[in-house]
Structure formats: structure tokens, C-alpha cells
Prior knowledge:
Elements: H1 5-10, H2 14-24, E1 29-32, E2 35-38, H3 43-55, E3 60-63, E4 66-69, H4 76-83, H5 101-106, H6 123-131, E5 136-140, E6 149-152, H7 154-168, E7 177-183, E8 188-194, H8 203-231, H9 237-245, H10 249-260
Antiparallel strand pairs: 1-2, 2-4, 3-4, 5-6, 6-8, 7-8
Helix pairs in contact: 2-4, 6-8, 7-10
Amino acid sequence: MKPSLYVLMETKTGTEKLAEALLLRGFPVEVKQDFITLRNGSTHDYAQLKSFLETLNIPVFWNGGQFQLLTNRFPLQMMKKIIEFRGREHRIHMEGYHFKWRSFVNRRYGIRTNTTDLCPYTAIMVKALNEAGIVTLSGCNGHSHHSPNFKLSGIYHGIWFSLIQQQYMKDLSLHYQWKVEYTRGATQSAILANKPSDERWEMKKVLADCFQMANVLFTHAGEIRDWKAQSFKRSMKQFVEPLRESGDVAGVYDWMRGVAGVGKR
């Protein structure tokens, strides 16, 4: 017999429920001794989280860089309110260097993003991709009208995510098929969800998929960053940049797959 989801949820403390809701909204938090803290949080990240909690009138006690819920219970309705908190429109700009091999190789981490700017349901995946070193500029949940997607920095990060999928995500049971597509004359890449044409987009399924994939990325982020650093070097530019510049995405993919040793790890 499967464990009761109701019982599992009701046995969680208020602090645990708050932490789970924040994580699903894109704040990379964890619970330690009944206190919530941000993993690798910057001063800006903490300020944004404090403002978010104040906006929703959630009573917490701060102790340095960690905080605790001041009530014993935390209703599911409040969890839902956090998870579904709307993002804000924000500008996305790509410089020419984003496309270059040097930029891909040199970056160990992705970029910092403003959590409350990000779309709900997909925010957790944006955070996880960047923590694993895959530069992700934005994410969109599709708003139930079009394909949920993530905009990456150039084609190298798109190919790299495809290889990570093969190595770490092949056994996940997902509601949608998440595939990398190459746009703007094969100079940019994005991760898009795919579904049968007769099905509707369901935000809870989008969130469930993003949570599964993000959990893999968070768990193996250090290992993935090390794998990338060990596999790809700046000196390889002479082999791979001509392929990219000619628009040969398949050639770049085959070359990177061979260098990374996918299937041999």
C-alpha cells in the first residue's frame, strides 16, 4: 500500500511546508534544524526573499541568514499562493560573447536571476539549470496556451543539456517530452516541452516535470560542473567554432558527445 499523501503532508511541520512551497516557486532553500536558509544565497537573494515573505504577510523570525516560521501550522492554501505567485515581465538581452566557445567553457555556474521575476511552475528549473552551470536566461510556463520553455545562452548550452538528459534523466517519468530546439539560424537554443496536439497544457504537470528535472540537477550540480570542466577546454575552440559558425549543429552535437564520453560514464 502506498503511503497516504494527506498523512505525509499533515505530518510536515509548518516550516517544512513553507520551505517546500518556496522551493517550488524557485527559491533554492533547505531546512536545517527547523530553520530555513538559502543555498549559496547572495545579499540580493536574501533581500528579495525577505521582501517576498513580507509581501505575503508570512510571519517569520530571522536569525542571521536563516529564518523560522512563527506559527505551528501552514495551510495548503498558503502554499498554493506562494507557488502560483505571478512573475514580472523583464528584459532579456544577449551579447555576442554568449555564443562563443570561450564563454561556454569559462563559466562554471550560470547566471543569477531574480526569482520573483520568473514565471511560476518553471522558476525552479531556471534556478537548477543555472546552478548546474547551464546558462539559462529565462523560463516561461506557457500560461496554458503554448509550450513551456527555457531560453539558453547559445547552442553549446543547449547541446550540453541534451547530453545531461541522456546521462542523468533517462529514467525520469515525465508528463511531457522536453527537447532542445535551435532557433534564429541555429545560433540560439531553448528547451521546449512537447505534447500530443489533442492534449491541453496543465500547469501542475509542468511543475511536476520541472521539479523532477530540477531535483536531478540540484543533486548532481557539482558533479555536472566537474564533468564539463574535465571534458571541454578553451584550446578546443579550433575544432568546434568552425562547426558552430557554419550552422552545423549536428556536427557540434556529435563532437561534444564524443568528447564528453556520453554513454561511457
